[in-house]
Specification:
By secondary structure, the protein is an alpha/beta fold. The protein contains eleven helices and eight strands. An eight-stranded parallel beta barrel has the order 1-2-3-4-5-6-7-8, surrounded by eight helices. β2, α3 and β3 form a beta-alpha-beta unit. It starts with 5 loop residues before the first strand and ends with a helix.
Length: 242
């Protein structure tokens, strides 16, 4: 029997709109609570080094107020490790981060940064924080995740999402093969980046994928249709794919 799939909603860009005016609204915590009411099983927030959207105060409030698990996206730095240990989110997803990028541009090089990541993964795990590595669908990266002892990987679906529909099959197979390899090695598989109503179903249909994390598209569509129905529609598409 195919296992159910969870939806994590990333609320970073509610904070982006708030910060554009330097006001207190729209409130990303309110958005997180609405997303949970609409069927999201988790909330994702990326605390960037430059605090371009989510702030330290947002993480403190999300940690205190969410009725569903918080997934803290974070760079592999001592500052972010300290913040994660202070707030103890349910999960910490380690992502690559460059100050000049608009959004995360690719997966973490877990193989190349093994020595940097090993003590961080161990420290987070010892604190009861579930570690996820945001990686490309690549066997070498999955092998590194296994050796690091990471319980979760999140496969980067950005390349899949950027391709024209006719050209997606090769990348979809790459994602499916990576998901199967990770699951075979006892790692829980998540996926995310660039997913929309139009491209989510084939990813949600990969049987080993247990969670999708989706943000920018949902927040954008919410401008037109409202956050609750948009999250509910995504939830329905994911469920139908299973």
């Amino acid at each position: 029997m195919t296992q159910p799939i969870r939806l994590g909603v990333n609320i970073d860009h509610v904070a982006t709109v708030r910060n554009a005016r330097g006001s207190g609204y729209p409130d990303p915590v309110r958005a997180a609570l609405m997303a949970a009411e609409a069927g999201a099983e988790g909330i994702t927030a990326h605390l960037r080094e430059d605090r371009r959207h989510i702030t330290d105060a947002d993480i403190a409030r999300l940690s205190a107020e969410l009725p569903v698990p918080l997934n803290l996206e974070m760079a592999a730095t001592e500052e972010m490790l300290g913040i994660a240990l202070r707030h103890r989110p349910h999960a910490a997803c380690i992502v690559p981060e460059k100050r000049e990028e608009r959004t995360t541009e690719g997966g973490l090089d877990a193989a190349g940064q093994f020595d940097l990541l090993a003590p961080m993964v161990a420290t987070l795990g010892e604190a009861g924080i579930r570690v996820s590595l945001f990686i490309e669908p690549d066997a070498a990266q999955i092998d590194a995740a296994v050796r690091l002892g990471a319980p979760v990987v999140e496969l980067h679906t950005g390349r899949y999402a950027e391709l024209e529909e006719a050209a997606r099959e090769v990348e979809l197979k790459r994602l499916a093969d990576a998901a199967a390899l990770a699951a075979k090695n006892g790692i829980e598989v998540h996926a995310g980046h660039g997913l929309t109503f139009d491209n989510v179903v084939p990813i949600a249909a990969i049987p080993q994928v247990r969670e999708l994390n989706i943000g920018h598209f949902l927040i954008g569509e919410a401008i037109f249709d409202g956050l609750v129905p948009v999250v509910a529609r995504m939830r329905s598409l994911m469920d139908a794919a299973r």
